[in-house]
Amino acid sequence: MKKILTHINGVPIRRNFVKDLSININSFVKGKLLSEVLFWNEVRSKAFHNIDFTRRIMLGNYTVHFYVKALGLIIEIDDTYQDEVLIYEGNRQKYFESLGLQLFRITDHDIKNNLRVVMKDLEDFIVQHYEACTIIQDF
Q1: CB 96 within 8 A of CB 89
Q2: DSSP secondary-structure letter at 126?
Q3: Which of 103, 111, 122, 134 lies 20 to 30 A from 13 at CA?
């Protein structure tokens, strides 16, 4: 059974550390989106359920907005959509999923206008994907 990382609204959340993942912390790129700064202020220093978030790192050949190593969770902020961007993002997502990582996407607009809803949606996503289930047997 996987180790418990934290609890969200009384629900135990299990770790999902992905081994042998190429992370390059030396290629830190500072975010330019206001929404990144707003989101970072909500999660930095383990302020969000004592979960450690890393900002703007390379996973393989791709830069991600936020990464939770203990969960194998990527948080991406989407700001614009063009055909080329959609193809690129689809390839990125397939790559991350092939490594066993989960991807949580939020929009720039939602962070700026509905940050509380975004944080609640993130809680719900984590509970849905990382809840430490126990097996209950009927006798």
Answers
A1: no
A2: H
A3: 111
How far is CA 34 from each of CA 30, 38, 111, rounded to the nearest angstrom? 12, 6, 9
Q: Cβ-count burial of 137 within 10 angstroms (0-12 exposed, 13-18 middle, 19+ buried)?
A: exposed
Consecutive 10-residue runs of the chain (139 residues): their mean pLDDT? 86 85 57 84 96 93 93 90 68 91 94 96 96 56
Q: How far apart are alpha carbons 19 and 17 in whole angstroms?
A: 6
d(CA 107, CA 8): 23
CATH of domain 12-130: 3.40.960.10
The token pair at 65 is 């907005």
User: How many whole angstroms separate alpha carbon 73 and alpha carbon 11?
Assistant: 18
